[in-house]
Amino acid sequence: MEEQIKSGFVTLIGRPNVGKSTLMNRMIGQKIAITSKRPQTTRNRIQTVYTDNERGQIVFLDTPGIHKAKNKLGEYMVTVAESTLKDVDVILWLVEPSTFIGAGERHIAEQLSRVQAPVILIINKTDTVKHEEVLKFIDAYRRIYDFAEIIPASALKGENTDVILDMIFKYLPYGPMFYDEDTVTDQPERQIVAEIIREKALRSLDEEIPHGIAVTIETMKRRPKGNLTDIEATIICEKDSHKGIIIGKGGAMLKKIGSAARRDIEEMLEGKVNLHLWVKVRKGWRDSDVQMKNFGYDPKNV
Questions:
Q1: What is the reported pTM?
Q2: 130: number of Cβ within 10 Å
Q3: C-alpha closest to that of 291 among 72, 79, 63, 82
Q4: Strands 46-52 and 6-13
C-alpha cells in the first residue's frame, strides 16, 4: 500500500515588511517573491510550491501586508491578503520581535478569530535581538490568541525554517499533490520579470516614489537562434518629477535599475537577456480601476 502523503495550502500573513516574502523564498529554496526594505512590496497573491517526496506538498500563498489602506490599490492589497484566510489549511502569521502589540497586530488577531485553520505564529528577525528576550515576546503574543504553535525564527539567516516546515506538515491534511514535483510557482514568466524590475526600482529609488510605480512587459521574445531573450518593459509612475528621478542624470538611474534586473532575469531564464526600459507617467493610477486592472491588479480576480 502506498504511504499516505500530506498536501495543502498555507498562507503567510502579517503587517508590511515583516519578512513574509523572504521566508517564503527561503523555504522554497529560490527567489520567487520580490523583497525590499519598503513596506507593501508584495501586491498580489503569489503562489509557490514546496514538494517533499516523502512528506508531501505545501502550496504557499505569499500575500501583501495587511495595513490601513490609503487608496484603491491599498484596498485591493488588503482584500487580497484577507481573502486568503478562509481558503487555506494552515496560517503562518509573521510578527516583529517585540512585546509591543499595536493596532495593526490586534486587527489581524481579530480577523483570525473568525477562521478555522490552525495559526502558527512566527516571531521573525530574532537574529536582531538577544536570545533571552524571545520568551517575553512569546508570552506577550500568547495572551492575544490561541496559537497552534509559536516559533522564533530568522528568515534572513535561515534559522528555524526547517522547524516551520515540520510544523506545517504536522497540521496539513492527508491528500494528493496539487502540482507536479518540479513546479515551483504558478506565476507566469512575464509576471516574475515585471516584479524583478519593480524590486530593483524599489531598492534604488527615493522614499516617496516606489509606492507609485508599476511595471508592464510590452514584449518578451526568445530569439530562435542563440540563447537570448529580448524584453521591453515600461516603468509606470504617477508624476513628471518622479519620471525624471527614475531616469536619473544622463539616464544613470534607469541604467542601474536595468543592469540589476537583467542579472536576476538572466539567472531565472538561464540565458542572456537584452533588456530595454522605458518610463511613462500615468497620474493617479493607484486610484483608477481601469489603470489598476491594466497593470495587473484586478479586484475581480481576488
A1: 0.60
A2: 8
A3: 72
A4: unpaired
DSSP E strands, 72-177? 90-95, 119-123, 149-152
Beta bridge partners, 220, equal 231
Task: Give the pairing of strands 6-13 and 119-123.
Answer: unpaired
CA distance 302 to 45: 9
Residue 54 CA to residue 172 CA, distance in Å, equals: 14
Residues whose CB is less than 8 angstroms from the CB of residue 102 and which lie 6 or more positions away in sequence, other chains included? none
Sheet of 90-95: strand order equals 46-52, 56-62, 6-13, 90-95, 119-123, 149-152
> Mind listing the pLDDT tens digit for each residue in 35-79?
444 444 444 555 788 888 889 888 887 665 555 556 666 666 666
Q: What is the DSSP code string of 255-284? A: HHHHHHHHHHHHHHHTSEEEEEEEEEE-TT
Reference 294, options 196, 194, 214, 240; nearest CA is: 214
User: Given the C-alpha cell 484596498, which residue does it identify?
Assistant: 75
Mean pLDDT, rounded, of the chain: 81
